[in-house]
Amino acid sequence: MVAAMDWREYWNRDTPIYVSDRHKLLHYWLIANDIAAIVPSPDAVVLDHGCGEALSAQRIAARCAYLYLCDAAPLVRERLEQRFRNEPRISVIAPEDVEDLSDQSLDLIVVNSLVQYLTLEELRHLLQTWRAKLKPEGRLVLADVIPPDVSPLTDAKALLSFAWKGGFAVQAGLGLVRTIFSDYRKIRGELGLAQYEESEMIELLTSMGFSAERRRPNLGHNQARMTFMARPA
């Protein structure tokens, strides 16, 4: 039953979030391009934590020395391992494997569209881990953070705008109707999504040993959400 499901279980299956194959492809293409643009150097070691299916991760790998793709869902990791089995610069890991990475070994950690599914306690634990794994000059990027004043209607408008530009507007309209009656809406009502004011997130990052600021634009298509850039203080 949905009421007994948590977010990790929800994402460990095919979901109705993407309204069409084209939506899914364009989403991951855009995210990969946005991440590739902030890779600091060709020698960088990068962690994409909460990467999802990362269909275009090779675009990121082409800009760095090594890329770790991390996702909590076993099904997603299986697909990633199959997709990138011939990519020598990409490794697929589980969240618990991040603990085993050497301290101060990462140049960039990107966490896109994950914060909303974490409790504050979970986020604090991960921030502590990420800080330990970053090099002193490394960067943590928290993206797609949802402010309290962003409603599902705002998200729907952003999707429709993205769909219009991407050529899947009809599918987006139908997909939004399906989402209303989907498990996602039910589990979102049951578990909720974590939301943060800009000042709250900067205060949290500061308290966990980072210097942080809001970065514009947000990664991806939804500019009503927020991205934060943080460095070990």
Description:
The chain is of the alpha/beta class and 233 residues long. The chain is built from ten helices and seven strands. It has helices at 7-11, 21-36, 57-61, 74-83, 95-98, 120-133, 152-166, 169-180, 183-191, 198-207; strands spanning 45-49, 66-70, 90-93, 106-112, 134-145, 210-215, 226-232. Helix 3 (57-61) links the parallel strand 1 (45-49) and strand 2. Helix 7 packs antiparallel against helix 8. The longest helix is centred in the first third of the chain and has 16 residues, at 21-36. The chain is globular. The model has no long low-confidence stretch (mean pLDDT 92).
Keywords:
233 residues; seven-stranded mixed beta sheet; alpha/beta; single chain
Low-confidence stretches: none
Overall 3D form: globular
Radius of gyration: 17 Å
Residues in helices, as a percent range? 40-55%
Structural class from helices and strands?
Answer: alpha/beta
Q: Estimate the strand proportion.
A: 15-25%
